[in-house]
Amino acid sequence: MQQFFRLGASALALSLMAGSALALDADFYKKAGEPFQGVTLRGVTESTPASNYVREVLAPRFEEMTGIKVEIETTSWDQMYDKAIKDMEAKTGIYDMVYIEQDIVYAYLARDFLVDMTAALEAKPNLKLPDFDEGRLTSFADNFRGKNGHLYGMPMEAFVKPYVYRTDLFENPEIKAAFKEKTGRDLAPAKTHEDYTQIAEFFTQWGKDHNEELWGTTAQAHTGHAASWYEFFESVAPTFGVYDWGIDANNNYAATVEHGGRMNSPEAKEALKYWLHLRDIAPPESVQSTWSEVATTMAAGRAAQGLVYGENVAWIASDPNQSRVVGKIGVALPPVSEGVMEAAEKGEGYIGYYDGGAFGLPVTSKNQDPTLLFMQFLAEEEIQPDWTLAGSRITTTATYDDPKVKELDAKLSGYFTMMKDQGKLFKGAPPYPFHAQVREATAPIFYEILTGTIDPDAGLDQMAAKAEQELTDLGYRQ
Q: Are 367 and 96 in contact (CB under 8 A)?
């Protein structure tokens, strides 16, 4: 997801590079890179904290060791996809690396766009780093494995989407007393949707009464951008027990209640009305907010709570150059309906979105061998801690235990601990090769719901029917 934070050739990037004592196998990289002197690898990715760190810190370090230049193009989310897909479709071989978000990898695998990196390294042992081991990657890597269990993407960022709240507001004695008087209960992070709504309404009214630029919640509710569609189906609907977009892959890909799906189920309709109400009491920029603006809204201190992509949590909580709420951020699990948490703990559901991405090696790349070297470099344990500090991402299990990461974790109200211990409660997008097609088919109706052109209940009915029509046209529904 496109983010606000940017790592340029900044003091932060330079200091991280200088402060990283990378105990890497320099002899291996030097020898392995000898045949590729003068080669330039080109990659395209979304401009995220993790990607910008690759461009500004890791790529120069790799070039220093191998003599292989790496140029990383960071751009917007939509441009990134457009450039990568067009290159792979046309087989022009412009890019040696493409960013693969967790939700689109299944479509790439279905179209045979990517090199099987496991098999490629087995076939060319001279390119394999002696201590490279796929087993040290976190379970998030499983999202980028094919049916044969092989790795088709090297994870470079991974994060959950937690419930973020302002500790300074939740712990303020005056506010706590006012909340108790108004609601009859103590102010604490919400466990249920009813709790969350009550807290959101309270803080929005508090802002009005005290002439403050403060609202009770964020809302990723852009009226013409896929971010709002994703917010609803991947972050909100699951907390009401509506999973996998309400499409039942085991029941002829049914989406409508009539045919056994849940996209327009009573729970989905309840979830949508809940979210639309929050949108209406959120900051005015929410109707034009994607994932980027939600992060900046929270960092500006304009909201008391919200669902925020985890890759933003670190800079919001710790970077005074970008955030007005440094040291004032807490994280918790998202509020859920009755039975949803229990289902998630049993592995029968989930409570929110586990996002992230990997770098894939297109089969059209003209520089596959040196790219394989760079992919392994991205899994080196020694580079992980500073990369995590820069981008709130963890892709190897050992990173959780690094002292730098533990120190930051304490400042983030245990966000990394949440990922480690409770990441199993979150889930990525469903493994649909038709991901983009169904989203694009239904999104226009969703935007009409957001603008008030269509009633929410009727809109979800139309979306479910449209999803089934698209799946029929694509050959998935028989």
A: yes
Q: How far apart (Å, rounded) are the C-alpha atoms in residues 351 and 353?
A: 7
* DSSP secondary structure letters along 285-331: GGGG--HHHHHHHHHTT-BSEEE--GGGHHHHHH-TTT-S-TT-EEE
pLDDT of residue 16: 43
Asked whether 426 and 352 are in contact (CB, 8 A), the reply is yes
Strand partners, 137: 396
Adjacent-strand bridge partners of 164: 306, 331
Output the pLDDT for position 18.
41
DSSP letters spanning 55-89: IIIIHHHHHHHHS-EEEEEEE-HHHHHHHHHHHHH
Going through 135-174 in order, the beta strands assigned E by DSSP cover 154-160, 163-166
The residues with which 75 forms a beta bridge, in sequence order, are: 46
Pairing of strands 163-166, 329-332: antiparallel
d(CA 323, CA 299): 5
Q: Where are the alpha helices (DSSP H) in 320-452?
A: 340-345, 368-377, 384-391, 403-411, 415-422, 435-450
pTM above 0.85, yes or no: yes
* Residues whose CB falls within 8 Å of the CB of residue 425, separated by 6 or more in sequence, listed in order: 333, 341, 344, 345, 350, 351, 352
Please list, in sequence order, all residues whose beta carbon lies within 8 angstroms of the beta carbon of residue 291, skipping any fewer than 6 positions away. 1, 2, 3, 220, 227, 309
Look up residue 284 and give its DSSP letter. Answer: G
SS3 45: strand
Find out whether 261 and 247 touch, Cβ atoms under 8 Å: yes
pLDDT digits (tens, 9 = 90+) for 401-456: 999 999 999 988 899 999 999 999 999 999 899 999 999 999 999 999 999 999 99
* pLDDT for the residue 341: 98
User: What sign has the CA pseudo-torsion 371, 366, 76, 243?
Assistant: negative
Output the CA angle 422-429-165, nearest 5 degrees.
45
- From the list 224, 162, 219, 159, the residue with the least C-alpha distance to 1 is 159
List, for the chain, all residue ranges whose pLDDT scores fall below the cut of 70. Answer: 1-23
The answer to whether 46 and 90 are in contact (CB under 8 A) is no
**Scanning the structure block, which residue is given the tokens 């009859």?**
184
Domains (range + CATH), the chain: 26-159+354-401 (3.40.190.10)
Q: Residue 22's pLDDT is what?
A: 46
